Amino acid sequence: MSATPSNMMPLGTQAPDFNLLDTVTNKNKSLNDLKGEQGTLVLFICNHCPYVIHIKEQLIAIAKLYALQGVSTVAISSNDIENYPQDAPDKMQGLMQEWGNPFSAYLYDATQDVAKAYLAACTPDIYLFDKNLACVYRGRLDAATPKNEELLTGKDLRDALEALLAGEAISQEQVASIGCNIKWKE
């Protein structure tokens, strides 16, 4: 379990568009199909990452809570499934059933082009975009990792979401997420 930090997309960057397979519905969906009325949360995750598994309860709770307030949560897996078959689309579908389908979609990025467009480096890599799809937050969920004793609260992301919904400025002092590196194809 190597600890890889996120690359921290520049704030204000427009969310790169995509058209990817939603593993839950088996239909392709675009960013425009999935964007939220108040904001869009994009999570790069995968099935097997211990960092993602560690924070899954908060990811699920945040997705469900903020969906009620107009924020769409889109999860994307970009891992190489030849070397990591546990992250294949059929396994992704099964994981979402197990988690109760909390996200607007769980997309598979087969070419890894979307991960590269977002500058994603790790799982979880977390991006929050406003209603105009400008990046307002990128960073960690909170300070908790599988390697420390920090309490899992989702504080950093929740603070950003609350500020976004209140129309307040989001602190530009944001801490990189840390997790397993995306499993790039060779």
Low-confidence stretches: none
Give the strand content: 15-25%
Question: If classified by CATH, what would the architecture be?
Answer: 3-Layer(aba) Sandwich
Q: How would the global form be characterised? A: globular
- How far do the termini sit from each other? 19 Å
Return Rg in Å.
15 Å
CATH class: Alpha Beta
**Strand segment tally:** 10
Q: How helical, in percent, are the residues? A: 25-40%
Output the helix-strand order: EEEHEHEHEHEEEHE
**Count of alpha/pi helices:** 5
CATH topology grouping? Glutaredoxin
For the largest sheet, list the strands in their spatial order: 3-2-6-5-4-8-9
SS-based structural class? alpha+beta
CATH superfamily: Glutaredoxin
- Describe the biggest sheet? 7 strands, mixed
Number of domains: 1
Mean pLDDT level: 95
